[in-house]
Design brief:
mainly alpha, 138 residues, 79% helix, 6 helices
Length: 138
């Protein structure tokens, strides 16, 4: 059940990435940062829409990630790599991006899953967190 949820999330993340990256009117750097924002919105919306699944996935220890979770991790790694490749963040900040972007979005997702972040402010919260983190990494 948990890995099936990760697979569903991975599909939604990939679709969000594809929607952003196909917009050739934006510069590569703008597209890379827009992918982070799109990923954040998808992730927090997923937690808000499926709170029981989000909380279960967070609570169950897993000896190793399943295929769905591995795909989510791969998409996140690709997202961070694009930030470096396009110059949105300095290469030395790649590792720091792992320690800042994911936990910040996880915090918002947790608030959304437990009803402490209402839907009306969800996307605005994601935007503020992503912009703040990216400024710090830039």
């Amino acid at each position: 059940m948990v890995d099936a949820d990760f697979s569903e999330l991975a599909d939604a993340l990939a679709a969000a990435r594809d929607a952003v990256t196909c917009d050739q009117k934006r510069t590569p750097t703008v597209r890379a940062t827009a992918v982070v924002l799109a990923f954040g919105r998808v992730y927090v919306r997923h937690a808000s829409t499926h709170p029981e699944r989000f909380l279960l996935a967070a609570a169950i220890p897993r000896p190793a990630p399943g295929p769905g979770e591995q795909r989510v991790r791969q998409l996140a790694d690709e997202m961070r790599a694009q930030l470096v490749e396009t110059g949105a963040i300095h290469p030395s900040m790649f590792r720091d991006a792992s320690w800042t972007i994911v936990p910040a979005l996880y915090g918002l997702a947790s608030l959304a899953a437990t009803g402490q972040l209402d839907d009306a402010h969800r996307d605005e919260g994601v935007r503020a967190v992503v912009q703040t983190v990216l400024r710090g990494l830039g």
